[in-house]
Write a sequence for this structure.
């Protein structure tokens, strides 16, 4: 929850509407209920005005957070391919990502 608050504060301060959360150093995914609550909070905090991408380790390809966040109205995506997620974040900006 602290991470989500920090992200909201940074968006309000910077005005940027794309967020990349790098969770690649996680060795164990948070429990399902934690991911569920984070998905709900992500939807409540950002709705469709902010794109949020979560890069997770290839330990387990899990999109539960993404599904919950999207069901709550957020523009969210998760996966293991950082370049793909950054390209998705940049789609509407008409700015090519150097890695694509």
């Amino acid at each position: 929850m602290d991470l989500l608050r920090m992200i909201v504060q940074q968006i309000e301060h910077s005005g940027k509407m794309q967020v990349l959360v790098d969770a690649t150093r996680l060795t164990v995914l948070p429990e399902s209920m934690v991911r569920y609550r984070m998905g709900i909070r992500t939807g409540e905090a950002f709705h469709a005005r902010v794109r949020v991408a979560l890069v997770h380790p290839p330990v387990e390809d899990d999109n539960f957070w993404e599904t919950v966040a999207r069901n709550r109205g957020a523009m969210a995506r998760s996966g293991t391919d950082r370049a793909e997620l950054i390209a998705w974040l940049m789609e509407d900006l008409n700015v090519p990502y150097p890695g694509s």
